[in-house]
């Protein structure tokens, strides 16, 4: 009695255990969607992105919108959407407005490598209204809480964080420094704690953004503490020479030190004659 063995068709055996190209593409799309959504959620949280404060009344938003359209819309658009002359402000948050307008950098007087600090053109109430309006357009970094601005943190820890993250541009003493293409890192001497904190979370000009994953709110408070302590103590080693580092010190020694040696030599020679 012969036994028959049935074999599956060749086409069927090839397909067994294989995924179709459409299934692989779908899995990749789902993975990318999940990863992108998780990253966006984490970024929004760590950047301290918050909508406008609840205390911001509709009247403040309307007043801020009128101020914006009268003074800022030429470059940034009537609805803060941006133009060819200025970037969109949707999502920059109230902190960016408080920093830029509160330091006089905005409105900008003219195009250049970067906005220059100048006398403030608005009252604090008007600045708050502008910040509330821009903050109402989309979630963004909000004005920091007062508890992080008291300059009463750990100065030693703040100095370490500053040396690691900020000193390469702002100088170890916070005196500022030159960058490329005519840009520069400004001096931090005399800058208010609020503006220092806002600069860290908004990244104005060439400055990177230090969100709460990079430097925690407590760490930012410590940096402010270190800077304000340094302002108060001054230069314990004598004349600071602008705190510009070894170049300024070497130039001082070369001009005045060497000049004094030459003058003393001439005086001794004349005395002996």
From TrEMBL:
GO terms assigned for molecular function: heme binding; iron ion binding; lyase activity; quinol-cytochrome-c reductase activity
KW Transferase (keyword) present: no
Top EC class, one word: translocase
Basic residues: bias regions: 1-18
Residues annotated as domain Cytochrome c: 59-138, 153-272
Keywords, in A-Z order: Cell membrane, Electron transport, Heme, Iron, Lyase, Membrane, Metal-binding, Repeat, Respiratory chain, Signal, Translocase, Transmembrane, Transmembrane helix, Transport
Residue sites binding heme c 1 per the record: 72, 75-76
Name under which the protein is recorded: Cytochrome bc1 complex cytochrome c subunit
């Amino acid at each position: 009695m012969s036994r028959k063995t049935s074999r599956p068709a060749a086409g069927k055996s090839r397909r067994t255990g294989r995924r179709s190209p459409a299934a692989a593409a779908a899995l990749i799309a789902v993975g990318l969607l999940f990863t992108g959504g998780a990253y966006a959620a984490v970024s929004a949280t760590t950047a301290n992105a918050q909508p406008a404060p609840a205390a911001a009344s509709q009247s403040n938003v309307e007043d801020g919108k009128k101020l914006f359209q009268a003074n800022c819309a030429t470059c940034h658009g009537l609805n803060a959407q941006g133009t060819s002359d200025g970037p969109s402000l949707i999502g920059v948050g109230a902190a960016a407005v408080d920093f830029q307008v509160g330091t006089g950098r905005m409105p900008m007087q003219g195009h250049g490598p970067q906005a220059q600090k100048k006398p403030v053109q608005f009252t604090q109430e008007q600045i708050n209204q502008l910040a509330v309006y821009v903050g109402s357009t989309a979630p963004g970094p909000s004005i920091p809480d007062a508890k992080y601005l008291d300059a009463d943190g750990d100065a030693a820890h703040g100095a370490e964080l500053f040396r690691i993250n900020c000193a390469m541009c702002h100088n170890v003493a916070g005196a500022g420094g030159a960058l490329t293409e005519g840009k520069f890192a400004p001096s931090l001497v005399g800058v208010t704690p609020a503006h220092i904190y806002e600069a860290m979370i908004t990244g104005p000009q060439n400055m990177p953004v230090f969100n709460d994953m990079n430097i925690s709110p407590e760490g930012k408070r410590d940096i402010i503490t270190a800077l304000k302590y340094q302002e108060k103590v001054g230069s314990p080693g004598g004349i600071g020479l602008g705190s510009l580092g070894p170049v300024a010190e070497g130039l001082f020694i070369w001009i005045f030190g060497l000049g004094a040696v030459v003058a003393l030599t001439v005086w001794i020679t004349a005395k002996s004659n």
